[in-house]
Specification:
This protein has 180 residues and is mainly alpha-helical. 81% of the residues lie in helices and 0% in strands. Helix 1 packs antiparallel against helix 2, helix 4 packs antiparallel against helix 5 and helix 4 runs parallel beside helix 7.
Length: 180
């Protein structure tokens, strides 16, 4: 399968951020075009771990962050893949990416990460809510983001979508209320 060749390239060049970003974007497009490839990617090819590794190695490269989150978004439409992602470090990696994107003002990567968390909150609200609440200042920073003037519609849609899902969780709802 083509994913195997991409995985080989990612493993051969982990230090090259553009190769990682382009490979992750290609994998994402493969999932959208061939949904049956999703399960193989997460079960056999090791794509989740490669994406997590790329995010950690290239934490300051917005395209790598965005491409990894877009892969996770594509995979989040498959129930089996969602369970695999819940059992891995994907949510934690995306939260780390979001924190970095908030600091560096990277709205495209941020919007992709928020969309992924929104999708995962539909599958497992409790897991996403606990992960967000366990990360210091993430929720309050997201709430402050609403007050900033941004023309990035995708960012606002992703942010409001995530917050509306999170508001269904009692603990998050009370934190949102406390924030004013």
């Amino acid at each position: 399968m083509l994913a195997n060749a991409i995985v080989v390239g990612m493993k051969a060049h982990p230090e090259r951020c553009n190769i990682q970003a382009d490979a992750l974007s290609t994998l994402s497009q493969m999932v959208w075009s061939l949904p049956t490839a999703a399960k193989q990617m997460v079960n056999e090819e090791g794509c989740l771990q490669l994406a997590i590794d790329a995010m950690e190695i290239h934490a300051s490269h917005s395209k790598t962050q965005q491409s990894a989150c877009e892969l996770f978004v594509a995979l989040s439409y498959d129930k089996t893949c969602c369970q695999v992602m819940l059992d891995s470090d994907v949510i934690s990696s995306v939260l780390n990416s979001i924190k970095g994107c908030l600091k560096k003002s990277q709205p495209k990567a941020l919007a992709s990460g928020l969309l992924f968390l929104q999708n995962m909150a539909v599958i497992s609200l409790d897991n996403v809510a606990k992960a967000i609440l366990s990360e210091e200042n993430v929720l309050s920073t997201l709430l402050r983001t609403i007050q900033t003037k941004t023309s990035n519609t995708n960012l606002l849609i992703s942010l409001f979508g995530l917050l509306s899902n999170l508001a269904l969780h009692t603990d998050v709802r009370s934190r949102i209320a406390d924030a004013g």
